[in-house]
Amino acid sequence: HGEIDFKEDAKFAQHLKKGEAVSEFAMSKSMAEQRQYLPIYSVRDELLQVIRENQVVVVVGETGSGKTTQLTQYLHEDGYTINGVVGCTQPRRVAAMSVAKRVSEEMETELGDKVGYAIRFEDVTGPNTIIKYMTDGVLLRETLKDADLDKYRVIVMDEAHERSLNTDVLFGILKKVVAQRRDFKLIVTSATLNAQKFSNFFGSVPIFHIPGRTFPVNILYSKTPCEDYVEAAVKQAMTIHITSSPGDILIFMTGQDEIEAACYALAERIEQLISSTRKGVPKLLILPIYSQLPADLQAKIFQKAEDGARKCIVATNIAETSLTVDGIFYVIDTGYGKMKVYNPKMGMDALQVFPVSRAAADQRAGRAGRTGPGTCYRLYTESAYLNEMLPAPVPEIQRTNLGNVVLLLKSLKIENLLDFDFMDPPPQENILNSMYQLWVLGALNNVGGLTDIGWKMVEFPLDPPLAKMLLMGEQLECLDEVLTIVSMLSVPSVFFRPKDRAEESDAARENFFVPESDHLTLLNVYQQWKANQYRGDWCNDHFLHVKGLRKAREVRSQLLDILKTLKIPLTSCGFDWDIVRKAICSAYFHNAARLKGVGEYVNCRNGMPCHLHPSSALFGLGYTPEYVVYHELILTTKEYMQCVTAVEPQWLAELGPMFFSVKESDTTLLEHKKKQKEEKTAMEEEMENLRKMQAEAEKE
Ligand code: ADP
Ligand code: MG
User: Fold this and answer.
1) Which of 60, 68, 69, 323 for a ligand 1 pocket mutation test, highest count of atoms within 8 Å of Cβ?
2) CB 98 less than 6 A from any atom of ligand 1
3) Which atom of ligand 1 has the smallest separation from the CA of 61?
4) Which pLDDT band, with edges at 50, 70 and 90, does 346 fall under?
5) Is the dihedral of CA 653, 658, 663, 669 positive or negative?
6) Tens digits of residue pLDDT in 365-406
7) What is the pLDDT confidence band of residue 633, given thresholds at 50, 70 and 90?
8) What confidence tens digit (pLDDT) does each residue in 309-333 have?
9) Considering only CA atoms, which of 667, 660, 665, 620 is closest in space to residue 644?
10) Is the CB of residue 120 less than 8 Å from the CB of residue 111?
């Protein structure tokens, strides 16, 4: 890869001295003093005045100016929590948790008491909670139960610039709440300057700017494109650590695997250095952060390193705007991020690695200039920045499957989704595609209305196919088993594979294998854990993450509560696990694949090649059934099927896309049949058009 081009900048070196002083100043302060030091504090009273005078306000301020942690507290101090809750939405769960914790500390209250948070499957709030941080998904689901959001006095829609799918849908819903409730206030915050759009959407509401306080960041580009950005980032971090003046390092990677690889490599290099030099090697505190990292480890990034040590945080784009760590002077930007994108070839969403946008790259660089002047090392060329990166990210609503959104809006009685007040409407074909998938799952009828199954599916905070799997468990009387599988699929992998004990842990995993199914392997793990009294030491002995299993148990009990409220009884099939496979098949036939070669399959619908993953039970035992269904496809070096189950071809014929029935109607049977036939023809025509549209899009 290319060497970083060091441009020595004399002015910059001068700034550095000042910057260090600023940072030390900030760090030595008490929490109350730190609050007053934030840029938002200097405009506190004016801001509260504007909020008093307006029902909707857009607030723009640099990342780290205090929007997320301070606004809610100011609103509380100004009396808004006397008769209601101040809610603050976050697109990311990590941010909701971490910020709630920080604010509870600033307000000197237990987390979950006056200040709490709620994310999917985890509600840490109580009767006293007056400031509630939550993911935008949680608030969206709350609108199902209470369309006017009566318990909230104010909602702060944070990180609006992120344009997450749920935030975008909330925009339309909250606009209605604003029109309906005079006592309700809405504050929309954004880290970037293009806030005019938000203001316009709500009818030209005021935009309040928090004055920035940032330091210059020296930006250095790679001279040539780099081939292995993980290696390049590790090398750059080591160079900084050995040769540059104090200041913490922040590295941006795309996901957990890369972050772990980078942290491992960094630790190894430090070890090597220690053993090869006589002189002392300066300490480096290596801290990963990504959404699936346990909360206690996440919190570590904010801790001050012990004397003299330098921190090196390796993060996903969570650290771009959602979380601010003070004391970062060096940013290493790989230029990539993971994004969920609808892939028309696969007919579904896939997490894929993409170059970030210029706006995101600038945000990343800005992280180095918060406490003093900093440096950003871009591991890509200046020409890539100028010519290859998009100016701004594409909003999620424009690029992902809308299955959940369609279900939700339908249940809110929004019949024609194209009429919904979207800030940027999703492409029509996106909506039609998602509707088609819901129709195939039996959640929508021939005229696009919710079926009985569809109404039930809305109740579960799950992706439509997983909700369908649960309901098929009910129908096939193996709900207990399916419930466990769904819960296990809703948590990160429970298999623990330390690099230095890889063989041992692989052997332990193999002991749980059920030859024909990874889903059943998960069921087996859970049932054995249960048979061993849910013990933690048992998990350790078997190379299982106890935290992951506990989380699965918690998810399971929450889903069970929902099943109870729907009066669905918990049936079990004992050890007749074939029926469980049938339930899985019924929800995932869109992900069916046929055997083509050794370990090689092709998707039945579109002929896409897909492979058994080396970690699959089927792969491990060398079992290659004719037909399988899979949970999801992950794209790395190959298209790998994640979580695979062998299925019988007659199940696919029976349950597959052509299987369809409408049960609800009060017209006579004959009329009903006629109507049904007409509707079906219409829907099929629509689907045919859709397929044509897609085929043309692919050609282009
Ligand atoms: P914004 O939302 O405008 O980006 P925040 O309110 O998130 O700003 O951050 C304000 C300040 O609070 C930052 O300086 C940040 O370092 C600090 N902060 C936020 N969360 C924590 C935490 N968990 N621990 C320590 N400091 C934190
Ligand atoms: Mg924020």
Assistant:
1) 69
2) yes
3) 3
4) low
5) negative
6) 999 998 889 999 999 999 999 999 999 888 999 888 899 899
7) confident
8) 999 999 999 999 888 888 999 999 9
9) 620
10) no
Within 222-269, strands assigned E span 248-252
* C-alpha to C-alpha distances, 421 to 171, 176, 190, 566, nearest whole angstrom: 8, 9, 20, 31
Cα–Cα dist 293/548, whole Å? 11
Q: For residue 99, give the ligand 1 atom closest to its CA.
A: 20
pTM metric for this prediction: 0.85
Write the CB contacts of 83 (distance below 8 Å, at least 6 apart in sequence): 153
CB of 302 within 6 A of ligand 1: the answer is yes
364 touches 324 (CB < 8 A): no
Question: Which two structure tokens, joined as six digits, stand for 349?
Answer: 């969403």
Calpha distance 220→378 (Å, rounded): 6
Give the burial class of 180: count Cβ atoms within 10 A of its Cβ; 0-12 exposed, 13-18 middle, 19 or more buried: exposed
Q: Candidates 34, 47, 68, 317: which one to mutate for ligand 1, based on the most atoms within 8 Å of Cβ?
A: 68
**pLDDT at residue 667 is higher than 60:** no
Q: Is 61 in the pocket of ligand 1 (CB under 6 A)?
A: yes
- Summarize pLDDT for 476-498 with one digit per residue, the tens: 999 999 999 999 999 988 999 88
Percent helix, strand and coil across the chain, each to the nearest 5: 45, 20, 35
Looking at residue 281, what DSSP letter applies? P
CA–CA gap between residue 601 and residue 628 (Å, rounded): 9
**CA 296 to chain CA mean position, Å:** 19
The strand pair at 56-60 and 207-209 is best described as parallel
Angle ∠(264,270,272) on CA atoms, nearest 5: 100
The structure tokens listed for 59 are: 């607030």
Q: Give the Cα separation of 121 and 227 in Å (integer).
A: 40
Instruction: List the beta bridge partners of residue 257.
Output: none
Output phi, psi for 180, to 5 deg: -90, -35
Distance (Å, rounded) from C-alpha 588 to C-alpha 365? 42
| Cα dihedral 34→36→42→45 (10° resolution) | 140
Q: Is the pLDDT of residue 359 over 70?
A: yes
Distance CA 189, CA 159 (A): 6
> What average pLDDT is seen over the chain?
87
Rounded CA separation 278/334 (Å): 33
Choose among 184, 664, 646, 194: nearest CA to 447: 664
Please report where in the chains the tokens 């029509």 appear, as a residue.
428
Q: Please count the residues of the chain.
A: 700
Query: How many angstroms separate the CA atoms of 636 and 631, rounded?
Result: 16
- Are 377 and 7 within 8 A, CB to CB? no
Q: Hey, what amino acid is at 10?
A: A
Residue, of 607 and 594, whose pLDDT is higher: 594
Return the SS3 of 119: strand
